[in-house]
């Protein structure tokens, strides 16, 4: 995650951007957390879209290890095809089937060792220490197949200053499932911290 965060830092430096609000979706949230941990002076807002501040649970680690083993055994396409349809709520699968198929086709082109490296990095990432000086926006969904709503509720309970929005009827990818609603809650958060 730190390595990907360094890439973001290099882009911002190149563009001469010294302060930003950074959002990340799912694993991108872990990258955004790493960026915030390493360069807090550059961040005046952090957004986690279908992502969590908590390190992987044992159950999550076990699942990732299983996926790694399958990929090592030449079953990358099976892992990708089995997991990626779950990025949207079941109720949205048919409506978004062409998009899901495009994402699956794209993911099948990734190198197996790259997918394994990312899965390992997610397993080993630390719990994010929330900086109360940096506004934090959680975007949750009530039909997320990967992160149950109770996890977001726990984050909000642990850190009451967090802003949390729940996209109704969405799964793990509200920016695909409900783009207007997702954009609206991001705009509201940006207005609140500006």
Describe this structure in words.
- This protein is α/β, with parallel strands linked by helices.
- The protein has two domains: 121 residues, Alpha/Beta hydrolase fold, catalytic domain (Rossmann fold, 3-Layer(aba) Sandwich), CATH 3.40.50; 64 residues.
- It contains nine helices and four strands; from the N terminus they run H-E-H-E-H-H-H-H-E-H-E-H-H.
- Strands 1-2-3-4 form a four-stranded parallel beta sheet, with helices on both faces.
- Helix 1 packs across helix 2, helix 3 packs across helix 4 and helix 3 packs antiparallel against helix 6.
- It is globular and about 45 Å long.
- It starts with a helix and ends with a helix.
- The model has no long low-confidence stretch (mean pLDDT 96).
Which key terms come to mind for this protein?
194 residues; alpha/beta; Rossmann fold; 2 domains; four-stranded parallel β-sheet; 9 helices; 53% helix; globular
Report a brief summary of the structure.
The chain has 194 residues and is α/β, with parallel strands linked by helices.
Which of globular, elongated, flat, extended, rod-shaped describes the shape? globular
- The end-to-end span amounts to 28 Å
Name of the level-1 CATH class of the largest domain: Alpha Beta
Q: Taking strands numbered 1, 2, ... along the chain, how are they ordered across the largest sheet?
A: 1-2-3-4
Q: Mind summarizing the main beta sheet? A: 4 strands, parallel
Number of domains: 2
Low-pLDDT runs: none
Number of helical stretches of at least 4 residues: 9
Specify Rg, calculated over alpha carbons.
Answer: 17 Å
Percent of residues in β-strands: 5-15%
Mean of residue pLDDT? 96
- Going by CATH, the architecture of the largest domain would be 3-Layer(aba) Sandwich
- Percent helix, as a range, is 40-55%
CATH overall fold name of the largest domain: Rossmann fold
Helices and strands: which structural class?
alpha/beta
Number of strands: 4
For CATH, the homologous superfamily of the largest domain is named as Alpha/Beta hydrolase fold, catalytic domain
* Helix and strand element order: HEHEHHHHEHEHH
């Amino acid at each position: 995650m730190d390595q990907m965060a360094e890439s973001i830092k290099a882009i911002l430096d190149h563009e001469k951007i010294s302060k930003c609000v950074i959002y990340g979706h799912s694993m991108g949230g872990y990258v955004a957390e790493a960026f915030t941990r390493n360069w807090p002076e550059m961040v005046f807002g952090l957004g986690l879209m279908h992502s969590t501040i908590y390190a992987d649970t044992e159950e999550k680690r076990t699942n990732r290890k299983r996926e790694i083993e399958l990929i090592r055994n030449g079953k990358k396409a099976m892992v990708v095809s089995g997991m990626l349809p779950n990025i949207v709520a079941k109720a949205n699968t048919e409506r978004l089937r062409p998009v899901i198929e495009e994402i699956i086709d794209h993911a099948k082109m990734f190198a197996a060792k790259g997918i394994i490296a990312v899965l390992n990095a997610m397993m080993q990432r630390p719990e994010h220490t929330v900086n109360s000086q940096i506004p934090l926006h959680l975007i949750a969904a009530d039909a997320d197949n990967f992160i149950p709503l109770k996890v977001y509720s726990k984050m909000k309970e642990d850190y009451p200053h967090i802003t949390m929005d729940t996209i109704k009827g969405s799964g793990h990818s509200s920016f695909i499932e409900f783009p207007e609603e997702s954009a609206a809650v991001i705009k509201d958060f940006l207005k609140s911290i500006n």
